[in-house]
Structures are given as C-alpha cells and as structure tokens.
Design brief:
homodimer, alpha/beta, Rossmann fold, 6-stranded parallel β-sheet, 6-stranded mixed β-sheet, 13 helices, DNA-binding
DNA sequence: CTGAAAGCGCTAACAG
DNA sequence: CTGTTAGCGCTTTCAG
C-alpha cells in the first residue's frame, strides 16, 4: 500500500544505535581515534578524512553512546532539578524554564520531587552523583545536616540553590527578591488602611518564606499607624491555607487583611473563608505571592506579588552552565530577580465595604 | 563551636564518589570481580567474604559509578517522560505520578517538554536513546512520520504512549477513557435540556481530544431531541479557550452550552465570556475535562470530567517497568482508566435563569 | 567460591 | 595528520 514510498523516503533515524565507532572505523579503513576526533570537534584531522568519516557515520546513522562517552569524560550532559513537588505551579513553571535552558545547551534534565523530605533528598543526591550529573538545581539544603551541606558544597558538581540561605556557604543561589516582595505586600495592605493584618506562612526553615515574612514585618513595623501583625504558621499549601484561615477565623476575627506566603495558601485561605461565610475582599483583603496563572481566575481575582518563575529556572541553569565551564573551581554566584505587585480584586481599603455585610 | 561534635557524628556521605571497586578490592585483598559480586546480589560468594567487602565498602563510603555500570550492562536506571509542557497542570500531576513510581523502583526520570513539536521530539528521542534510557513515556507519536514511528516501536526500549492512537501498533498505551468522558459531558448537557451545544477542541491529530469529541458527538447524535452540535477548533490551551469563546460569541449566539476539551480551555472560555458580558452558567453552561485542582476555585466552580492524572503517570511507569523485566520481548499493553463527572456550578438547566439577564 | 581476563564504547595522551 | 595504547569503572564469562 503506502509502504513502498514511505520506506524509500524515510531515513533510518533510530536504527543506528548499535553502530559504534569501530564500525565506522572499519568501514573507512581508519582508526577509531580518527573517527572520534572527526566526530567531536575535528581538530587535527585532514578535511577529506573528516568528510569521509562524517559521511559514513551519517550513512550508518551512527549515534554516540553517551554512557561510554560519559564514562570516559566524567560528564553526562545531564542536569538535575530537585524540587519539593512539580505539581506546585510555581515549580512547574520554574522547571520549564530550567528545562528549556538545559535543552538549549544540549543537556537533559532529571526531575526529582523531594517533598522537602531529608531522606528523599539524600537518596536523590546519591543517585544523581552516581550518575555523574553535571550540575544540580535544588530547592534548598537547609534541612540537611551541616556536615552534609559542607560535603555537598565540595562534592565537585556545581549546585545552585533556589533559596537565599545566607548561613550556607559554597552554593550559588537564585531567588526572587522575597524580602522586597513581602515588604511590598505589607506596605500595600497598610496603605489601604488595615490595622490588623495577618500573615500565613510556613516553616521557619524555609528561607524564602522567612524572607517574605521579614519583609512583611519590616513594612508593618516601619509604619506610622502601629498596625498589628498576626503571623500564623502552617503548611505552605492550599490545604495549609484552608487550615490557617479556619484558625484565623476562629481566634482572631479582628484581622481585616491577610498576606499569604504564596498563592496556593492564599487560594486555600479564600476557599476556607468562603466556606466560613467570610467575604473576600469585603471582610478580609488578601494578597498572595507568586502570581500563579490561575490566580487571575479565582473569585475574586487575586492580588499578588509576581515573581519570575520561569526566569528563576532559566537563571539557575545558566549559572550551572557557567560553573560547568570552569572545571571544578567556580565562585558561587548569587542572582536575585525582581518582583512586583499585581493588583487585582482581592483587596479593599479598610472600611470601604466592610461592615456592610453579615455578622 | 559546634564543629567538634558535628564532624564526629556525620558520616562521610558524599565523599566516597571517587572510590572504586579496585580500592575496595585492594583494601580487602580480593579481586574486583569478587567485590562486584558481593555488592550486587552476592550469589556464589562466601558469606564472610561478602561481609568483609560490604564492611569496607561501607567504611570507604563506596558509591557505584552508574555510567560505568550502565556501559557494562546497557541499562541506565533512568526513564524519560516526554510531554508537551510541564506547566500544564494535567502533565505536572501526571509527571508526579510517573516520578513517584519510577523513584520507588529505583529509577530516575528525565523530563522533556516537546510542545508537541516534531523536531523537538526527535531531538529528545535521539538524546534519550543515546543515554540508553530504559524506557520512555510519551505524549503521542502521531506527529512523527510513519517510518519513524515504526522504527521507534522496534528500537529496543519500551515506550508507552499517553494517547490511544489505534493506528499505531507496537506501543503500549495508557489513557483515561476519553470517549466515555466526552459522552458523559455531552449527555449531561443534553439532559439539562440544552439544544445547541458547542464543543471546543484542538487538533484532529490529538487522539485523546478526538476521542472526547467523538464521545461527545455520540451523546448528541444518540439523543432524542436532535440537539445541534457546534464544534470549534483552536489551540487546546487557556488562550485557545479565550479565542474560541470569542469566536463563538461573535458567530453563534444561540449556543447555550459548551463542552470544552479540557479545563484550561474551559477556563479560558469562561474568562472570555466574562469579558464579553456573557454569564456562566446563566447564559452558557460549561463543562470541562481533567478536573484540574484550580477548577474548584474559579468563578463559577467548574463542572468537569475527572480523569486520574496522577494514576496515568503511575500506570505508564508501571507498564514500562514490567516491559523492562521482559528483556526486549514484551507485548504491548493497553490500560484505560476510568473517568467521572464532577458536578459543580458552571452548568444550569436550559431556561432556568437564562434570558433573565442582559441582551 | 574466587581470580583472571575480556570487553562495554569512547576519549585522550603519546608516538610516529 | 593519524595510529597505538591506555584507560574510564563495572560486569561477566571462563577457568581454577
């Protein structure tokens, strides 16, 4: 039927995975070394020889075996990304940025979901190092023991962290300006006239969240009106947001504004508020952090701090690549990307519509 | 300060990456082969010898070099996932399912974003095969030429597809029951009394979307009241949804219901509707497909077809693993996971509140 | 049960 | 410019 023409047109794309340098060498009547040189770079090879080798390689559809190459060179052309959970839209966009950058440079990207669990992280690291990945982008290293941190920073493969962690030396970092983001959020709420503003955040060990909290506190403390800050800790997830809002509603009905440490928490909080009959933004104004795509679609659309998620992943890989060029002796680089407030409809000036409703 | 104790307690976790079998062999006064055997499996080794080797390996904190092992065995203990875009929440959840399953079995997972682009897919495949991945989960293979498809199915590494693609033999597949999902959605809308119902879908080449469309059409065609179906094609994304809704509003104001091929499209459509002053669900009822997490938070909460995204990834990797056990001669396996309707608030019976509003 | 030896496929000196 | 020679670190016959 359609076979004749098809087979004629198609070139044997994946059939050449068993042909080796030796096959080409034999075919060309030269040595494998010559073939190797011709294929990679081609320096110190007569043009004609190289052409001939290339032609044969092409014809045989030669595909180099990366494992062999890797064993010989100690490099694998693969990078790794260890994050807590790819389902978090923050990380999925970051991952895309990282993968695009890696792919553009000829690297593949291993994805690891650690859930911020120390044991999982250790397992992944071990496996990745065993595979001789050329670089690692990871969430944080704070929940590893200091000794392990130290070892990691000396293990020979460049690692860039996605959190500031001033305490840890020896790693490059890429972060959004979380401190400033927290400050912007706090200031915005206070400028709206709010006197009692809550902050939902996560573990103290999470450097980025800590920065946001500090920025936020800086805003309230440096403010004239002596506003009150209530900080509530929980899990930095949608469910955590729900749960913290329940706590807030139960214990501190006087809060009129909320800065959530990320959009997931904000969305969870909004959901719980809705179920508790608390209106957003009439009863409580909320600002999130991340500017996750779906934040624009919630009820109400979420005011939030935008951070360049894709760019973070991209920058992290760029740094990795620059380190990889430096053959084992790179200087840690710290890059901080800007943030900005995105005003939508989840905030209102204090008193504007408040007390217009129930209760 | 805290150094003394710390250093004493911590074991040298990542320091052993340069110790090789030879080192252990030397230390134990045995041959590398003995060490190799002791470490992997340990068959045909005297218990004491093995113990001794293991102890030394432990002490030296030996970490096997996977590249070397891979070169020798032809396996890499890594799998790969080629999807269109990890930022799509459908895929990020699927990826998590796949990664968890892989990780549990001792495999790492390479992430590739193809954007469904033929060239990118080819590049990834080449790279992955060169790295001797042990298995690949991929979106689809339909946009590759038939010859390439054929080659792929014979290339020696198991591949499982995330779309049905009946036309292509030689691959295993894992999908949700898209046909039934489309049918459920269509029937639901028709049972609500809608007479003119639109369907927003994507490329014909996308097997899963085609199945949903077919299921949908089956529902409308098998219905008593002879309802009318309007199918509109565009990109199966949020933006695509916006754009298709604009088209619908411009051209076919009589549609009172919409089945979107996925939640992103549904959400985009809802957004565009909102901006056009079309009320959901009063003017148009909409049902999505996927049951993406944020669908519960939109305005209004989205009625949708739930498909087990995490489970799809998990199942795909399970199949891969089972194939890997079979040493090159596995029978393609096809698994189809169930779907169900999730009723929320984006649909209304025809006429219920309709015509109560503007225009 | 264990050692010796060959080889996986490629790279990288070192000679010619 | 090109061939020779060693490995990279591990697995896997094949002997002993």
């Amino acid at each position: 039927m359609e076979t004749g023409r098809d087979n004629a047109v198609v070139q044997p794309t994946f059939s050449g995975f068993r042909v080796t340098l030796r096959d080409i060498a034999k075919e060309c009547g030269v040595d494998v070394a010559t073939v190797s040189r011709s294929l990679s770079g081609g320096y110190g090879i007569r043009k004609e020889t190289r052409q001939r080798v290339l032609a044969v390689a092409q014809r045989l559809n030669y595909q180099p075996n990366q494992l062999a190459r890797g064993l010989a060179t100690g490099k694998s052309s693969t990078l790794a990304l260890i994050i807590s959970d790819i389902r978090n839209p923050f990380f999925s966009e970051l991952a895309r940025g990282a993968e695009d950058a890696a792919s553009a440079a000829g690297y593949d990207l291993l994805l690891c979901n650690s859930d911020l669990d120390r044991l999982k992280q250790m397992r992944y690291l071990r496996s990745l190092l065993a595979k001789r990945v050329d670089g690692i982008v990871m969430n944080s290293v704070l929940d590893l023991s200091p000794g392990v941190q130290d070892e990691l920073s000396h293990c020979g493969v460049p690692i860039v962290l996605l959190s500031r962690s001033r305490e840890v030396r020896g790693f490059s970092t890429v972060t959004a300006d979380n401190l400033r983001g927290g400050f912007l959020a706090g200031k915005y709420l206070i400028d709206l006239g709010h006197q009692v503003v809550a902050h939902f955040t996560g573990s103290r060990k999470h450097g980025n969240l800590a920065d946001r909290a500090n920025g936020f506190l800086k805003a309230v403390n440096s403010s004239e009106g002596k506003p009150e800050a209530i900080v509530i800790r929980g899990h930095h997830s949608y469910e955590g947001g729900c749960e913290m809002m329940k706590r807030l509603v139960r214990n501190r009905r006087n809060a009129s504004a909320l800065f959530a440490c990320n959009d997931a928490v904000a969305l969870g909080a909004i959901r719980a508020a809705f179920e508790a009959g608390v209106r957003i933004p009439q009863d409580i104004s909320v600002v999130g952090f991340d500017n996750v795509e779906f934040g624009a679609l919630t009820r109400p659309p979420l005011t939030t701090i935008d951070q360049p998620r894709y760019g973070l992943g991209q920058a992290a890989v760029e740094i990795l690549l620059s380190h990889i060029g430096c053959e084992g002796s790179w200087a840690p680089e710290h890059r901080m990307l800007g943030v900005k407030l995105v005003e939508r409809e989840s905030c209102l000036p204090l008193g504007e519509v408040r007390r217009g409703g129930r209760q």
